[in-house]
TrEMBL record:
Keyword Transferase tagged: yes
Source organism (scientific name): Endomicrobium trichonymphae
Protein known as: Dephospho-CoA kinase
Function: Catalyzes the phosphorylation of the 3'-hydroxyl group of dephosphocoenzyme A to form coenzyme A.
Any GO MF annotation of the entry: ATP binding
Subcellular compartments: Cytoplasm
A Gene Ontology term for the protein's cellular component: cytoplasm
This protein's pathway: Cofactor biosynthesis; coenzyme A biosynthesis; CoA from (R)-pantothenate: step 5/5
Enzyme class: transferase
Main localization, broad class: cytoplasm
Keyword Kinase in annotation: yes
Catalytic activity: 3'-dephospho-CoA + ATP = ADP + CoA + H(+)
Residues annotated to bind ATP: A10, A11, G12, K13, S14, K15
Lineage per the UniProt record: Bacteria, Pseudomonadati, Elusimicrobiota, Endomicrobiia, Endomicrobiales
Length: 199
């Protein structure tokens, strides 16, 4: 089974993916793949530099992730150019990883842009992780050391949480504690793997 895991920024996808992993699933992390593909010496990084100039690099040649994030979350046209460079490669890597692991175990694809890039089409079931807006802002501010306005801007640059919830088969609310989240993931995984036909 391939489970798609999505949700807004800082909703708790990575945490949920870790819990799915602890239950035996194989988690594919789209953000981690994007990182690998933009490491020093990778063709995708060269393409980004060709398009945006050497200013997106740190002095040691690594990608300046903060700078790229600032561009992505403030300039819609530039965001589309970056996505055009990276998304085909990210999707190919995800598909490759699925092929290598699908016979061994259930797969969870943790992807913030699951619907936007069409990865929902390879999933058997889709789970959206949601949190209340205030908690989302709070967790994003805390984790990424942003101010409230920056956090809100990042949230509003994405497909809304409501739309994701609407498109998903299951929703996990992560407004409670990490322990609550763990329990919810456990219950859902039990249901998904129970053999009961879920329509
Ligand atoms: C912007 C970058 C440099 C920020 O890197 P950083 O290490 O700080 O954060 P990380 O990669 O963990 O991303 C954090 C979150 O930002 C959000 N985000 C990232 N890229 C995008 C995007 N193109 N559109 C909307 N939200 C995005 C997601 O919610 C993601 O989970 C990085 O996310 C990136 O290279 N993004 C472009 C690739 C992409 O579209 N990735 C999503 C794969 S489905
Ligand atoms: N239930 C919770 N209680 C408190 N903090 C939480 C909870 N769930 C997640 N967090 C924290 O909130 C932040 C966001 O969680 P996480 O990184 O899992 O979100 P994400 O959806 O993967 O984010 P992104 O879209 O940026 O990849 C992290 O710092 C995480 O430790």
């Amino acid at each position: 089974m391939i489970i798609g895991l999505t949700g807004g920024i800082a909703a708790g996808k990575s945490k949920s993916a870790k819990y799915f992993e602890s239950l035996g699933a194989y988690a594919i992390d789209a953000d981690a793949i994007a990182h690998e593909l933009t490491a020093k010496g990778m063709p995708s990084l060269d393409e980004l530099v060709k398009s945006f100039g050497g200013g997106i690099l740190l002095s040691d040649g690594d990608l300046n992730r903060k700078k790229l994030a600032d561009i992505i979350f403030s300039d819609e046209k530039a965001k589309l150019r970056i996505e055009k460079i990276l998304h085909t490669h990210i999707i190919s890597r995800i598909n490759e990883t699925i092929s290598q692991n699908i016979k061994k175990c259930n797969i969870v694809i943790d992807a913030p842009l699951l619907f936007e890039v069409g990865l929902d089409r390879v999933c058997d079931k889709i789970v959206a992780v949601r949190v209340s807006y205030d908690i989302q802002v709070q967790r994003l501010v805390l984790r990424d050391k942003l101010n409230v306005d920056q956090a809100k801007k990042r949230i509003s640059s994405q497909m809304s949480m409501g739309e994701k919830v609407e498109l998903a088969d299951f929703v996990i609310d992560n407004s409670g504690s990490k322990e609550d989240l763990k329990e919810r993931v456990k219950d859902l995984y039990k249901l998904l793997t129970s053999g009961v036909k879920i329509i």
